[in-house]
Design a protein that fits this description.
The structure is a homodimer of 372-residue chains. By secondary structure, chain A is an alpha+beta fold. Helices cover 37% and strands 21% of the residues of chain A.
């Protein structure tokens, strides 16, 4: 195991060029706070941002709630320095947003799960910090209403910086741990944020509120003040930890479906949970069609684990049937390696393996990851 | 030579999922007009948009003026179907914005200059059409003032959808061909566009106007009406053709420098032209630091061509010295192949060649392109 946590220097912040150069061990949340002090913004915000490093974020092209408006890690990688398994040091990309000098190895590395080489330095694109941020929490009696708000907001061309959904299981877990308030009878939440110039953020937030009411919201809370906003987001980011306290074992999935199929997917997850007699929490980046169904189980219960694995398989198959993908921001790893051919086909696997071999002929980088 | 112009069907426009599926021969401008009718927007706008195809745009990750705000072709490729040189058909990417299932081959293909395979279908990401567009033309007495407006606009966090610069040589060529008006004494133009919600576009346009005046603009013209806006953009897009009428041979370059080095690069191009006794027009996507220095020469004049090649080399070297890159949106092709090692290093070339071999072991795809 290679540990890069001590390579954690922010080597440069070039405000006027809107970029920063960092080592892979820099913690995402720490980098963001430092940049905010200078009026700069690095959007990717995985829930793990206080623990995860930029190197890890590059490994799986981490996203997060803000992915809906701002994209994922791969949209912010301008250039990389990496050591290849052959021992060669390569520098790829540039200090400019535009660069088509040769193959885009920087973006190829992003999301490659450490299978191609070791990133030793990254040039990250930054944007100016938005002038205003307004967080909106809408409570619904039915999960379908929450999901249909999301679909309608996307169709209406709204561009909040985040559009998150949480079901009843998630809600009850985070309610205990975070003190989040929601009215009697709530069984689904949509948490969103509008940002940008003041006028834009206000206009966008009002549109989200109006659409929430139209879709049957029983309450809509709007917060501008930083601490109150942060509290709502901390509750959302704490969803996985809150769920993990419910049962000894937690299997976190990461499927994506086209936005118009979100309601179908949400219903299917509920149905799959029922069929396998499992509790599955559903929450995630609904605006992107990216859900994190989380199966609550106990690894000491063999029968339950068998059912959990079957349910995960059913969730993958259903996402693919709906025109979706196996992973939006967590990657393939070991667990989904056996499913990859269903999405990319045998020819897709073959060319990816040949590509991997061209970087790592001896297969020493994260062996077993991504390919069976 | 493989010709795909007849594979020109727009196979699907999925409004609610904000995507379209097209064949490679679809002409960019035609696609954009069709999408606009449905309130949808595919931003990449190379000057050649009425002739260039999506397949070609994918080949070099085409950009254009709107790249400043909206990014390049690679930012809009969700997925591809491609035939590999081995005869295998691969499907890569997804109908979703997020996808980290295996390596990001769709983005790897984008900008690969047809050296890895033949794209037969592409899934393109769309965004909602902006509510308002305002085009702003600012005239300056000195090119440095125009360049410093650009730098200041970027530093101030302004995000117009385009921020273009044109020098005196370009200006006099397009003035003749387009009937563009500019006051007596003008020797540089900045053409920009503000877009988005009405309020935002107006606010942004006013900020650009104020900054223009502050930087010494002798006139600022603002246009909201579509035909008048289009006329200004047609003049800009006609720059290369207008210059090509001046001399028999035109060498169009495509370097990028970090935004803060734009003034240095503009001055260097002028100095290089003087040193080699050549007329070099400078224009381009200044907001991105992406300039298209265009050398006017005559291929029948051997001495002039020798000087033109030397000047091009000097421009490349200077861009690299300033921390820039050899190509922003046109690619490497044959002409810059000999310079690539100066940017990506010998190790970079080696791994790119190994990658190329893993796709195309017999070297049948665009041989000689990108690598010497």
């Amino acid at each position: 195991v290679l540990c890069l946590t001590k390579m954690n220097s922010i080597k440069e912040v070039a405000s006027a060029d809107l970029l920063t150069v960092v080592e892979p061990g820099v913690v995402t949340g720490e980098l963001q706070r430092k940049l905010e002090e200078e009026g700069l913004f690095y959007p990717p915000d995985p829930a793990s941002l206080e623990a995860s490093s930029i190197g890890g974020n590059i490994g799986n092209s981490a996203g997060g709630p803000r992915g809906f408006k701002y994209g994922m890690t791969k949209d912010y990688i301008l250039g990389l320095e990496a050591v290849l398994p052959t021992g060669e040091l390569v520098k790829t990309g540039a200090r400019t947003v535009k660069c088509v000098t040769g193959y885009d190895l920087a973006r190829l590395f992003t999301g490659s799960e450490g299978t191609l080489g070791v990133v030793t330095s990254a040039i990250l694109r930054l944007i100016p910090l938005p002038e205003e941020r307004i967080t909106i929490l809408a409570s619904f009696k039915r999960l379908e209403d929450a999901a249909s708000l999301v679909s309608e907001a996307v169709s209406a061309g709204l561009a909040p910086s985040a559009l998150e959904i949480m079901d009843n299981v998630t809600l009850s877990a985070i309610r205990e741990s975070s003190g989040l308030n929601s009215p009697e009878g709530t069984s689904a939440l949509v948490l969103s944020e509008a940002d940008g110039f003041k006028e834009v953020a206000v206009k966008e937030a009002q549109k989200v509120r109006d659409l929430s009411v139209k879709n049957g919201a029983i309450s809509v809370q709007m917060e501008k003040e930083k601490e109150r906003r942060e509290k709502l987001w901390a509750a959302r980011r704490g969803a996985f930890a809150a769920l993990a306290r419910k049962k000894p074992t937690t299997i976190l999935e990461d499927i994506v479906v086209p936005r118009t199929r979100l309601v179908d997917m949400v219903k299917s997850v509920a149905e799959i949970g029922k069929r396998h007699q499992l509790v599955i929490a559903t929450y995630g980046h609904a605006g992107d069609g990216n859900l994190h169904p989380t199966i609550l189980c106990d690894k000491r219960d063999e029968d339950e684990m068998r059912r959990a694995r079957a349910a995960a398989g059913d969730i993958f198959e259903r996402a693919l049937d709906l025109g979706g993908t196996l992973s939006g921001e967590h990657g393939i790893g070991f667990e989904k390696a056996g499913f990859m051919h269903k999405e990319v086909g045998e020819a897709g696997i073959r060319i990816m393996k040949r590509l991997k071999d061209s970087f790592d002929p001896k297969g020493i980088m994260n062996p077993g990851k991504m390919f069976e």
